[in-house]
Design a protein that fits this description.
70% of the residues lie in helices and 0% in strands. It is an all-alpha fold.
Length: 152
């Protein structure tokens, strides 16, 4: 896995916590905003979540997906640190799971864009350019490791 610096990890965790603790229903709300943005950016991603391309996502099933999405990121972020082998093992498992679900590696850049968009919605001007860059670098490292395992 591409090495991620302490500064990048610290920036991601700081802004994640700002967003997370600013909302009572963070997982479902944050996840829903991110999924809705993903589906705008890449409508084909809806099929992975069991939706047809034109179908609205405002039901209980969407809340489950939204919470799982935010929960996955929360778990991954909590494991970031010096034990690279541990996080690589976890991301291998995530990649294998995504492969069985039919997730296309081409969806990951769109997911990154949706994630940054959602952070901007939550944090507004509190998200600095340096923090945004840290998010992009950390997301790229994580998603590259997942995609590598989807392709294997």
């Amino acid at each position: 896995m591409k090495e991620i610096g302490y500064e990048q990890i610290a920036a991601v965790l700081e802004t994640w916590d700002l967003a997370r603790f600013g909302s009572k229903n963070f997982d479902s709300e944050f996840g829903m905003v991110a999924l809705e943005r993903l589906f705008v950016l890449q409508p084909r991603a809806k099929k992975v979540f069991g939706y047809e391309e034109g179908e609205k996502i405002g039901n209980g099933r969407a809340n489950v997906h939204a919470s799982a999405f935010a929960g996955l990121f929360d778990s991954i972020f909590q494991m970031l640190g010096p034990d690279v082998e541990f996080i690589e093992d976890i991301l291998q498992q995530v990649g294998r799971k995504h492969k069985t679900m039919g997730v296309s590696p081409s969806f990951f850049p769109f997911m990154g864009q949706a994630l940054i968009h959602t952070l901007e919605q939550y944090l507004g001007k509190d998200l600095t350019m340096e923090q945004r860059t840290a998010w992009e670098e950390v997301y790229d490292a994580i998603s590259n490791e997942i995609v590598k395992n989807i392709l294997n």
